[in-house]
Write a structure and sequence with these properties.
Elements lengths: L1 H25 L5 H13 L9 H4 L3 H21 L2 H5 L7 E2 L2 E2 L5 H14 L1 H5 L15 H14 L29 H9 L5 H9 L13 H23 L1
Antiparallel strand pairs: 1-2
Amino acid sequence: MLTRRATLQLRQQETLLDLLFLILYQFTTRPAAVSEGLVKGAVLSGFGTMQANGEIWEADAECQRLQLRIRDLLLVIAVEALCLAQIVSPEGDDGDSTFGATLLHSRDRLHAVHQFIMEQSEDLDRSPEGHDEQIIFPSWPMPVLCLAWAIVLRSLPSNLQPPSGDYFNLDTTDMDADADEHVVFLGAASRALRISSGLFPWLEVILEGPLFEASKDAFSGDLAVDMAALRRSPIKGELFEARM
């Protein structure tokens, strides 16, 4: 009975997250504060792995599958919240939506997100390097988010770049638009691309995981196929930009 109830709760979570993703995908010019909140919420929840009733269903295969879908869906939402779609396919707007500046045009929010991501990914710097096949990769997909953030930073003009020194101290003063070429993105990129970060194994796990199994989707028929394609688009956009 408890397992059945837990399964229902996980399915409800997934449905709500799917609706949230669809809204984000449809409205790319979302307010910067929304993007910041979504990124922080996804990371601080361990990408949905911090479930209060996890001990009830930890041995149930269906609940485990749903939990993995929730984890990967929250990662996709976090990547989408970084406005990567606007970098891959620029819409030519002036940076302001009906609700205010997007993340890509709000210096203070960009700096806050940068500080947060760099703080939360510090363990990637501490992981030992090596080619040992027995190396243990991080238990959460933070390197994927770091790669997406590095792509965002690389696309920003100099006047929106976070401080290149101590990123824990936010710089709210005007920045020189004619400053030397920025290299801030290299910090996030190096964390993502370290062998010990497990970026490529994580991408393989996600892209071949249950989130993209249309046959077992919460939706059915053509809608399930369409949803799988939509969920995959932020990750595919990230990989496309990473090759540029």
